[in-house]
Amino acid sequence: GALLVNERIDREELCGALSPCSLSFEIVVENPLELYSGTVEIQDINDNDPAFPSSQARLEISESVAAGARFPLESAQDPDVGVNSLQTYQLSANPNFALDVQTRVDGSKYAELVLEKELDREEQRELNLVLTALDGGSPPRSAHVQIHIDVVDANDNAPVFNQSTYKASVRENTPSGTLVARISAYDLDDGPNGDIVYSFSSHTPAKVRELFALDSATGELRVKGQLDYEEAKLYEIYLQAKDKGAVPGVAHCKVLVEVVDVNDNAPEVTVTSVYSPVPEDAAPGTVVALLSVTDLDSHDNGLVSDVNDNAPKVSQDSYDVYVPENNVPGIPILNVSATDPDLGRNAHLSYTLLQGDTTFGHLFSINRENGTLYLLTSLDHEDQVEFSMMVQVQDGGFPPLDTNVSVSVFVTDLNDNAPTVLYPHPNTTAGYTDVVAPGTPAGHMVTKVVAVDADAGYNAWISYTLLQATDPSLFSVGPHNGEIFTARQLREDDAPEHTLIILLKDHGEPVLSTSATISISVAEMVKEVLTDLTDVAPASDPRRHVTFYLILAVILVSAAFFITMLSVGIFKCYKWRKSKELYNSSRSTTYRTPGPFHHIDAVRGGFTPPSFYHQVYLTTDSRQSDLCKKPFTSSPLGSRQGTIRNGEPGMYHQIVGTASRLPTPAE
């Protein structure tokens, strides 16, 4: 009763791709006679290699194919089933292609080449790849196919239209041959690949081809048939530009042709009688007939005509626009909105920027059709904060009516300026040195850092911080005013020279900062400070000699002044001694001094001729002074106004003209 294999079993020959594969049989058993049925399932083994239809595949791919393009490959076949059948594909490494393995509905696998990097025939004219098919057996069986790819030198550049949509308008009574629009495309290729042929797209309706003609060489679109506004108001024409390359590149554009209505239809009056005949005794107001008027034309051509009696109306009389500084040029900042209740051209509005300032034309521009105001350049809050201008809204009537709208553009501040130190000046080569005396108590203001910030508002608030110091415990800085104070009393053991670095920060976002360096000397006298300044001055400073010469000049001037004053004193003493000797000699003479009041009275009364020159010799005691008169005809006296001129100091006086009294001893 043993069931034996009679010959080698080939599952693929018996069942092909059918799974599971089974064989049915019957067994007759004698004595007693019995009939048994049985089934043998033939299990698959991985005894077949995957096989490609051919050992080599050849593809031609244009170098102009964009990345992402897919190229199906012939599939391998494996007669085994289940896991022993074809399971996957592998592609040899390369920089341009990747392999995408897909699964069909029946579970079979197929592969596609995916272009990841565009080809360039000038770099590589051909590629050789190896595609491997693998089944799922253990070990797996495989098959290989050589893929040879020829890179075709293609028309690299397709034509490009200078705009995707063209707009044109033409009157309905325009004669045949009138130019409607001229489309233009360019191709960067040379030769036939750069020659462009214009034509209608394949889906252009036949009616459009009957009404319009396109020149294939120049791209001129002209009227061919009779246009009728009442039949069609707008035509949407699709055109294409194709070069003459082997694989021609194609570009498409659209032309929108608006048919403008012409008043070519007269109004039609329809009379509907509702009460006829009319009796002679009909009451006033009785409806006799109903009239209706129609006109096939459109807009103004089909209405009771409009009068331009309404000026444009704006939504608001003025606009305030806030623009941050350092803006991107060309941005829209405002849309001026206006309406006009008139009809047709009387309601067509145009917007104009009135050039009150000639510089505004370089800064602002307005769209004439929709009133959008554009900023053409980048603004700076520190240069100008506000711009005021006028926008005129005008309709298309005759005569036109207009309305003006005022626009104010305010430039808001951004924190784009760091604090600037005014004192001490940061660019000077010689440092500023402030002086503080030893033993100075705490709280004494030594100096002050002066700074400004070109920004405005909160961005210009400056705070001061002591960043670094020779002795941090000795000085402090006011956080809001930059004043530098002594934090404690100066001691004898403190350093004679101190350098402070002050950090200045604004309160903007982001925070901008700068620093200032302060030099402070602890000195008792100015001479010490000058010596210190001379010591610390840079050797390369060209002005160090000027300081020396200035100090030397001060010393020389002081010495000259002292010598002059000493000489004047000696000279006065000498004159005083001479006058003393003269006084002693005059006391021994018998000359009697006339009464002083006699001469003064004569002068006061006008009896003394103006040509007299008076000399008065005075001593320290006026009662012993001598008074004498001498004629002096050349004296330039022209009035009686008294003039007293000092001669030799303290001793010799000249009195000219009128005198009200003699000098007192004190004088």
From TrEMBL:
Keyword Cell membrane set for record: yes
Record PROSITE patterns: CADHERIN_1 (PS00232), CADHERIN_2 (PS50268)
One Gene Ontology term, aspect cellular component: plasma membrane
Transmembrane regions: 548-571
Region (Disordered): 629-650
Compartment list: Cell membrane
Keywords: Calcium, Cell adhesion, Cell membrane, Glycoprotein, Membrane, Repeat, Signal, Transmembrane, Transmembrane helix
Domain Cadherin: 53-161, 162-269, 315-421, 428-540
Pfam families referenced in this protein's UniProt entry, alphabetically: Cadherin, Cadherin_2, Cadherin_C_2
Main location class: membrane
Residue stretches of biased makeup (Polar residues): 632-644
Superkingdom of this protein's organism: Eukaryota
GO MF annotations in UniProt: calcium ion binding
Membrane topology: Single-pass type I membrane protein
Keyword Iron found: no
Gene Ontology terms: biological process: homophilic cell adhesion via plasma membrane adhesion molecules
Protein name as catalogued: PCDGK protein
Organism: Copsychus sechellarum
Native organism taxonomy: Eukaryota, Metazoa, Chordata, Craniata, Vertebrata
Record gene name: Pcdhgc3
